[in-house]
Each structure stands twice: as C-alpha cells, then as structure tokens.
Amino acid sequence: PPPVAKPAKARTGPGALDPTFGEGGVITSNPAKTGETEEATCLSLDSEFLYVAGVDFSPENGQWRIEKRQAQDGTLATGFGEAGVIGSNPSARDDAPVAIAVNGEAIFIAGNDGGGIPGPVACEFEGLVKNPSWRIEKRMRAYGSVDRSFGVLGGWTGIVEHDLTCRAFALDDTSLYFLVSYVGHPDVSYRHPPEEPAQQMSMDRWWRIDKRLIGSADPASGFGKMASVRCGFGTGPSDLAAMVAHEGRLYIAGTEIHRVWTTEVDGKKVRKPLESRWVLERRDAVTGDLTRGFPMRTDPTVGVDGLTDMMMSGPLLFIVGRNADR
C-alpha cells in the first residue's frame, strides 16, 4: 500500500493513544491513493483546531495540502477551504511546505516549490531541483482564503525568491522570520576553491535569516543589513533545521558537517559527509546580532548526526534529532 500521513493524539501521562481522536487515536490521510509518499511535514494548533500541512500528489505532482481539524476528535473543519482542506499547487514540479504557524486571525505557511527558472542551470543533482523558489502564504484562519494585501506578488503566491530554499520559519507578535539557504550546484561553493568543481560538495550552502513585518511582508528595518542577516559557521556546509522566536530572541538550530570523505562518481571526485554535529545559535530578534557565547555545538556520536526540530516551553529549549551510533 502507498505511504500515508498519520496525525496521532496521545493522552498525557503514560502516552497511550486517545481513543476519542480519529480511530483509536490515529487519523489516516491518503488523498492521492497512489504509490507516492503523502507526507505531513508540519503541525500547528490553537485552542480549538489543529492545522496540518504536507505534500499531496493528487494532481500528479507534489502540491501543498493544508488541513484544519478539530483538536478534540480530529474531524475536518468543514467551513475551511473545501470540506476542511486546501490545496496549493504553484508549479508543475513537486512543492512542499516546511512550517505552519497560527497568529491572531491568520495562518502562515512557509515552504518551497519546484518551479525554478528554465535554462541550463535549472538542472537536477542528487535529487535536488536547482533554482527552486520559496514562498510564504498568509491565509485567514476561519475559512482559509488568502490575504491579498500580504506580499508583493498578489496574495496566494506570497513572497517568491529563486535559488533559495526555505529551511525554517518562526513568528512573533509583529514579525516573520525566515531561515533560507542556497543549495549549491556542483560547481558553486563558498567553502571550496572554484578552480576544482569536481571536488566541491553539492550540499554546500550559505544561509541567512530574513525578517519581515507580519501584516504586509515588508522588510523590517533595523535587522541586519536590509532586513537580512547572512551567516555561516563551522568548517563545512550547514543544513539548518529549526528556528524559534521567544521573548525578543531567535534560536536557530541545525546540523553542521565538519568532516568529509572523497569518493569517485562517474570518474569525478565527490565529497560526502563523514561526521556532523548539532549547532545552536541565539540572536537578538531586533538587530539580528549573535549573542555572546554562541554558537553552541554538541556532537552526540562519531558519525552523521542530524538535528530535526526544537520547541520552547518557559525557560527550557527542547531539541530533537538523530544519533548516528556505530
């Protein structure tokens, strides 16, 4: 059977599934009913509803799928979109959301589309579409309709920027924060000399944080240079995974590759990750300045460890990821 996305609800305490939610605590959503992977990628909630975003292959390519469900029992909220579901499909390639958040009367969904720019550089390498686009949609929480006063390209398209991939997204009461990275081509890198393209890593990327106003998506003044902070850390490429905005600070967490090995692919030398570690940054949410004492690094095992998500509760920061035990 095809893979499906399964939101689940567990009771507090022993962690047993809540039988009043869906069927035995689990909801299965498989809209395309094909062999493609229907993947729920992010989740948010308010006092009454769950908002789930993921990838849906109903139109024969991956599109954004947004569901609004009752938090109590998991049933779809029928007044939202079409019977509780919205599909957004901006390109003929695969599109995927990476984060969803609720604020006041609006829902914000950030992610990527595979539209790109046609031409010789719009190629595929190791499963990545070059010249991808990233965007943010603002929709009304009650019905799911787009806010056409948001962004520069007319509501549903939100903000579009080519060559960059959105990795994470956070918001506070006044601002939106986007963590985006440049996914390097085999012959483009800021870490390795350009005269040796065969030895450069396709994963090389620089990353930055953009800050925009929550109402209009206009750049927020005072944050870095032109509302953007461009950074990079460590001795290898960085794949940032999560960001949290909390009490005037930004917490950015991700994976840093710091050891590589060289192999040959089709007669060319290619570098692959050998060892990676978790990295945590803390920045001022107003200026974007890095807090003294950061970044902090932890290397759980000898191998390719991967950080996947984090959340904050009071003064505590919880980080989850993968150990590469050998």
What does this structure look like?
The chain is an all-beta fold. The protein contains no helices and 20 strands. It has strands at residues 39-45, 49-56, 63-70, 85-88, 96-103, 106-113, 124-125, 128-129, 133-140, 161-162, 164-171, 175-182, 207-213, 228-231, 238-246, 249-265, 268-284, 296-298, 306-313, 316-322. Strands 1-2-3-4 form a four-stranded antiparallel sheet, with no helix packed on it. A hairpin with a 2-residue loop joins strand 16 and strand 17 (268-284). The protein is globular and about 50 Å long.
As a percent range, the share of strand residues is 35-45%
Poorly predicted spans = 116-130, 154-158, 185-202
Largest sheet: 4 strands, antiparallel
Question: Which H/E pattern describes the elements?
Answer: EEEEEEEEEEEEEEEEEEEE
Q: Give the helix/strand class.
A: mainly beta
Level of helix content? under 10%
Topology:
Elements: E1 39-45, E2 49-56, E3 63-70, E4 85-88, E5 96-103, E6 106-113, E7 124-125, E8 128-129, E9 133-140, E10 161-162, E11 164-171, E12 175-182, E13 207-213, E14 228-231, E15 238-246, E16 249-265, E17 268-284, E18 296-298, E19 306-313, E20 316-322
Antiparallel strand pairs: 1-2, 2-3, 3-4, 5-6, 6-9, 7-8, 9-10, 11-12, 12-13, 13-14, 15-16, 16-17, 17-18, 19-20
Short description:
The protein is an all-beta fold and 326 residues long. It has strands at residues 39-45, 49-56, 63-70, 85-88, 96-103, 106-113, 124-125, 128-129, 133-140, 161-162, 164-171, 175-182, 207-213, 228-231, 238-246, 249-265, 268-284, 296-298, 306-313, 316-322.
